[in-house]
Amino acid sequence: MTPTARERPQMYVADFEELSLRAPETVTLEFLYGKIGAKPVPDGDHSQIIMWLIRQCIQQRPDLNLFPEQGLKVETYRHGRVKPDGVLAPEEHFTGQGEYADPDGVLMTLEITSWDRDTDQRDRKEKPRAYAESGIPVYLLVDREQCTVTVFSQPENGRYSNTHIADFGNTVALPGLGISLATERLKNYVR
């Protein structure tokens, strides 16, 4: 069956990967559900959140690393290419893999909302679906606009069956990971 114009991707995955390799360092491109998107360059508060989360993960689980901007093959049949803000996996997990790694063995992805108009669609709708379709056990969304942390877990049939939303200031447990985050500090990183 031939896909309709609406279902056809903007380009082939191989063409996207070539384009992504040639993009300037100031641009992070992603390819999700057949569409190209650009992630804005992180601001200082975004970077502070990443560093805080890296420290939390290492202190509580020294056997794991939170890899910033590790590319992943996601979505049904691995047709999508994304660069989450963070990917939690065992220490040597990505050794020998290319720019976009298979998500098997990834324990959690992390996204921190940006101040752009695509955040709602990308971080709150498309990425939870793509990560669940890929079988990633936990997706952590730090939502600076809503001052919340959302933990998506238990991927089943292409979606997360468990979603827990907590306001900044509450302690949040990451299911199955042995990591708890006291999120009071995140209040310092919003506008």
How large is the count of helical segments? 3
**Total domains, how many?**
1
Strand order, largest beta sheet: 3-6-8-9-10-11
Q: Percent range for helical residues?
A: 10-25%
Number of strands: 13
- Calculate the mean pLDDT score and round it: 88
By secondary-structure content and strand pairing, the structural class works out as: alpha+beta
CATH H-tier superfamily: tt1808, chain A
For the record, what CATH class applies? Alpha Beta
CA-based shape: globular
Query: Spans of 5+ residues with little confidence (pLDDT < 50)?
Result: 1-6
CATH topology: tt1808, chain A
Largest sheet: 6 strands, mixed
Rg value: 16 Å
Just name the CATH architecture. Answer: Alpha-Beta Complex
Reading the helices and strands in chain order gives HEEHEEEEEEHEEEEE
Strand content: 25-35%
C-alpha end-to-end distance = 49 Å
What does this structure look like?
This protein is of the alpha+beta class and 191 residues long. The protein has a single domain (42-189), classed as Alpha-Beta Complex (tt1808, chain A). 22% of the residues lie in helices and 35% in strands. It has three helices and 13 strands. The chain has helices spanning 13-22, 44-60, 119-133; strands spanning 28-32, 35-39, 64-68, 71-74, 80-82, 86-90, 100-101, 108-112, 138-143, 148-156, 159-167, 171-174, 179-182. It has a six-stranded mixed sheet with strand order 3-6-8-9-10-11. It has a three-stranded mixed sheet with strand order 5-4-7. A two-stranded antiparallel ribbon has the order 1-2. Helix 3 (119-133) links the parallel strand 8 and strand 9.
